[in-house]
Amino acid sequence: MMRIILIIAMLCISQQTARAQEITAKEIVKKANDKMEGLSNESNMTMTIVRPTWQRSISLKSWAKGKELSLVLITDPAKDKGQTFLKIKNEMWNWVPGIQRMIKLLPSMMSQGWMESDYTNDDILKESSIVEDYVHTLTGTEKYSGTECYIIRLVPKPEAVVVWGSIIKWISKGSYFQLRSDYYDEDNKLVKTETSTQVKMMDDREIPTYIEIIPADKPGQKTTVTINKILFNKPVQDHFFSQQNMKTIR
Q1: Does pLDDT of 195 surpass 80?
Q2: In the structure, how many helices (H) and strands (E) does the chain have?
Q3: Does residue 127 have a pLDDT over 70?
Q4: Segments forming the whole domain that contains residue 170
Q5: Geometric angle at alpha carbon 114, from 225 and 40, rounded to 5°
Q6: Domain with 210 in it: what CATH number?
Q7: Picking from 45-54, 71-80, 117-126, 172-181, which range would have the lowest pLDDT averaged per residue?
Q8: Residue 134 placed within a domain
């Protein structure tokens, strides 16, 4: 009898330990987000916008610190070179050197396409946070592109000012790569799908370096991003993210 009691007790302890070690949906999303962003990051990327009748590429540099500070500089093509985008907390600006004009981006503009791409202004400037502005639910697991993934549904919190009605993410187990994200509008209609591939060593970690966004209802249209270089957790002062620096940074 004592032996049976001991076995039952050990099973109960084992189950409690397993439950304590289970990772939550929010923790999975945070690990994946931290892997791609770090405490701060400085990157060099190439964006290619593909349309049925034309195609163009944009080279850019970006700097980000936490959720509240980001700066993006266009370095190519010539007609857009020097244009910058700045975010400080919930305020955003666009400096256009060709007309020497500073434009304030309104919250209503966050869902608009950035530089005619399939990224929104919110995607680039990260006004919303996939960690803090959504409720996360682990809906299951499955293999995606041969990799075992968590499937997590993100629904915006009532008070959150966000672009999407919901998001579903496939995040790889162990490595926490965001391999696929489906973005839905408020009517639960699929708007676009984002996939990430070509995992490479970048700075101190492995991350996917090729991102593709395909709109759900626009045949022949997509946007791709290649991360050419990225540095994580490089010290950067808050005053770097300023309107004055927008006009002079190169």
Answers
A1: yes
A2: 4, 13
A3: no
A4: 24-248
A5: 60
A6: 2.50.20.10
A7: 117-126
A8: yes
Count structural domains, the chain. 1
DSSP summary character for residue 211 = E
Q: Where are the beta strands (DSSP E) in 97-177?
A: 101-105, 134-144, 147-156, 166-172
- Of 58-67, 110-119, 131-140, 207-216, the range with the lowest mean pLDDT is 110-119
94 within 8 A of 112, measured Cβ to Cβ: no
Q: Residue type for 89, please?
A: K
Average pLDDT over residues 135-160: 96
Q: Give the closest residue to 115 by CA, choosing from 172, 37, 36, 60.
A: 60
Q: Is the pLDDT of residue 3 over 70?
A: no
How would you classify residue 105: left for phi > 0, otherwise alpha for psi between -120 and 50, otherwise beta?
beta
Q: Is residue 179 in some structural domain?
A: yes
Instruction: Please answer whether residues 35 and 180 qualify as being in contact, where contact means their C-beta atoms are separated by less than 8 angstroms.
Output: no
Query: Which DSSP helix (H) or strand (E) runs through 32?
Result: helix 25-37
pLDDT for the residue 120: 87
Could you tell me which residues come within 8 angstroms of residue 1 by beta carbon, excluding any fewer than 6 positions away?
none
pLDDT at residue 14 tops 60 = no
Distance in angstroms (rounded) separating the CA atoms of residues 170 and 168 = 7
- Amino acid identity of residue 135, one-letter, is V
